[in-house]
Write a structure and sequence with these properties.
The complex is a heterodimer. By secondary structure, chain A is mainly α. Chain A has 13 helices and 4 strands. Chain A is 70% helix and 2% strand. In chain A, helix 2 (43-68) packs parallel to helix 7, helix 2 packs across helix 11 (248-258) and helix 7 (169-187) crosses helix 8. The chains are: A mainly alpha, B mainly alpha.
Chain lengths: 326, 322
């Protein structure tokens, strides 16, 4: 009688902390700040924090799906800039027209990414590098290289500046997106196929899974959410911003990685991404408060250094725990 | 009796795909000769070569890195760091202009070389994926440059230093000469040295390379150091050209330009094929495309869209081969 190899590996003690490191850091930072800074836990601070950071959190959702398939989407920052311009241009025709223009614009970029990646079989890195440039060009063409004011007579600006049930509208949009995307990733064929593709694309193909259609789907979703972030950007600052969004893609990727999603694909945690992106955003918030206390003054430039160090620590922790897992 | 004959060295038949960058470049040159007045002048050549020099210099390092299946996103931030350190040296009153300038050519480059080693350490010792490993310095590096310079634009006049960006030898800009020399060295290293073979082997099949005794980790470490050193040099050239250093802007998007040049040039991102001359051709092609669109009065914004489409088309053409 042959003994089958024991496939249920012993639970690794470090495994518990993988992906939770960011959560622990976030909790510690929040508790620390709540005690240290007056007004940190205020409604105003929380509301303005999420009003702004919802954009990055939305982009992080799409990026989690893309990275789950083992891909990458570098175009999201440019897409958000382009969508903010399109939304601002369409805003005189009403808030709905503005939203549609921005979201559909993002969707188009996402579909272009998906079609080129699945048809040409070129690395997502190169294709989305192309649309990174292309979307920026469209943003500048459509805007005439200047910020485009949104229509102030309608209620388009409410999408960025307004509140619903006391919550900032961007946060409400984020929660709606999560309400759809969390089950989408966890409990649908689309989500499971996406992670299988990231785990082993050839195997997924041999099993008869709809690999190409799923990949197209994740890039479309990423583009759509980047478009929505662009709409919020335009509404929040009252103008379409052709030069905004620089580096957003890498911030989102960093947030996803800090949140515990491995870049090699096959796994993805939206909760982790929310924690990771929030943590990276909170560093800026905390720096502001620290400078507000006037005890020590920290240059705002340190935020990037601190973000980088956070990413480094998480990456090192991940690499240690990954090495211990069989 | 069968004798085992050494197979004759056959040259691969000329393939459109393999030489896509060259053909596209020639086509673009011919198009300009016919349609652009005064295209065939030294001035035009100089403009295009000067614009390409920093991309090629960074692209050489990037080619080495990509040849080992890696990627280096930190190059632009490293340029900003070296660009921030250099003025502190040659404007330093205690060092004096001559020692300060001499150090300004050396220390910033060494610093970015060390940061390249840091990238390499993450990739080799800690098995972090190159894109994430170098993302750390992409983010933190620009912050470091901003902290060093206080985020201020620093203007300067220091003719010994800015010669790197403005001087000419035999009518050719110094940075173009630097580019050509580095390129020649890189071609030699890649094709004629043991290290070059290691690089190709690691990119072709890392596992097989390891089993056949190639020092995989040392090779991968070195390519990131090379990329760091060259980025530092490119940062010096950029601030020398501008007579100013702006840590917010120096090297911005350079990682993407360099990667595009490498990819258009025909080096495969998943290993197995590497060409240093291809990177030069790729960079020249992208620059000449930008120049052509500019001369033809195509607005900058539309030019970006066309550039994006052409880059994808050029890479797609090479992938069709397989």
């Amino acid at each position: 009688m042959t003994a089958l190899p024991n496939t249920t590996a012993r639970p690794n003690p470090l495994h518990l902390f993988r992906g939770q490191g960011a959560m622990i850091a976030l909790i510690v930072l929040v508790i620390f700040s709540a005690f240290r800074y007056e007004g940190f836990f205020s409604l105003y601070n929380a509301s303005s924090f999420f009003r702004y950071n919802s954009m990055f959190l939305l982009i992080g959702i799409g990026m989690t799906f893309v990275i789950g398939t083992g891909g990458i989407d570098l175009s999201v920052g440019s897409t958000a800039a382009m969508s903010s311009v399109l939304a601002a241009l369409a805003s005189p025709h009403g808030a709905i027209a503005g939203v549609l223009a921005g979201v559909l614009g993002g969707l188009v970029i996402g579909v272009i990414n998906g079609v080129l990646i699945t048809r040409l079989r070129i690395e997502p890195f190169i294709i989305t590098l192309g649309t990174f440039l292309g979307a920026r060009g469209v943003a500048q063409l459509a805007s005439g290289q200047a910020a485009v004011s949104v229509d102030s007579s309608g209620n388009f600006a409410q999408l960025g500046q307004g509140d619903v049930f006391g919550l900032p509208v961007p946060l409400v949009l984020l929660l709606l997106a999560l309400l759809i995307c969390v089950p989408l990733l966890r409990a649908t064929r689309f989500g499971r196929t996406a992670l299988s593709v990231g785990d082993n694309e050839d195997a997924a193909r041999l099993m008869g899974l709809q690999v190409d259609r799923t990949k197209l789907g994740v890039y479309a979703l990423s583009g759509l959410l980047a478009g929505l972030a662009g709409v919020i950007l335009a509404a929040q600052f009252g103008a379409g911003q052709p030069t905004e969004g620089i580096g957003w893609e890498l911030t989102a990727i960093a947030g996803v990685v800090v949140g515990g999603t491995l870049l090699s694909g096959g796994r993805g945690s939206l909760l982790g991404t929310m924690v990771g992106v929030t943590l990276l955003g909170l560093i800026f918030n905390v720096l502001n408060f620290e400078n507000g206390k006037g005890v020590i003054s920290i240059d705002v430039f340190w935020q990037n250094v601190i973000r980088g160090v956070f990413l480094l620590v998480v990456v090192l922790l991940q690499s240690r725990s990954a090495r211990h897992t069989p | 009796m069968t004798s085992i004959a050494t197979p004759p060295r056959t040259r691969a038949p000329f393939s459109v795909h393999r030489h896509a960058a060259l053909i596209a470049l020639i086509a673009l040159i011919l198009f300009n000769i016919v349609t652009t007045p005064r295209f065939l002048t030294v001035a035009t050549l100089n403009i295009n070569l000067t614009q390409t020099a920093t991309i090629v210099i960074v692209g050489i390092g990037m080619t080495f890195v990509i040849a080992t299946r890696g990627i280096d996103l930190s190059v632009g931030s490293l340029m900003a760091i070296s660009g921030a350190i250099a003025p502190m040296l040659f404007l330093n009153p205690t060092l004096g202009p001559s020692i300060g300038t001499a150090l300004a050519f050396i220390l910033p480059v060494l610093a970015t070389g060390l940061l390249g080693a840091f990238n390499g350490l993450l990739v080799t010792r800690f098995s972090v994926q190159p894109i994430i490993a170098t993302l750390v310095l992409f983010i933190a590096g620009r912050g470091i440059a901003q902290v060093i310079s206080g985020g201020q634009l620093i203007n300067f006049t220091q003719s010994n230093f800015t010669a790197l960006g403005s001087a000419r030898v035999l009518g050719i800009s110094v940075q173009v000469l630097v580019m050509l020399v580095l390129l020649a060295v890189a071609v030699f290293v890649l094709t004629r040295t043991l290290f070059g073979r290691y690089v190709t082997a690691v990119g072709g099949n890392p596992e097989a390379a390891r089993l056949s005794g190639v020092p995989v980790n040392r090779t991968r470490m070195l390519v990131y150091v090379i990329s760091g050193l060259l980025s530092g040099l490119a940062g010096l050239i950029v601030i020398a050209i501008n007579n100013s250093s702006d840590s917010n802007l120096v090297g911005q998007n350079m990682e993407l330009d360099a990667i595009a040049a490498v990819a258009v040039g025909g080096t495969a991102l998943n290993g197995g094929r590497v060409t240093m001359i291809g990177t030069l051709l790729g960079a020249l092609f992208i620059q000449l495309l930008r120049y052509t669109l500019l001369v033809k009065g195509v607005p900058d914004a539309a030019a970006i869209v066309i550039k994006a489409a052409v880059i994808i088309a050029a890479v797609a053409l090479q992938y069709r081969r397989r």
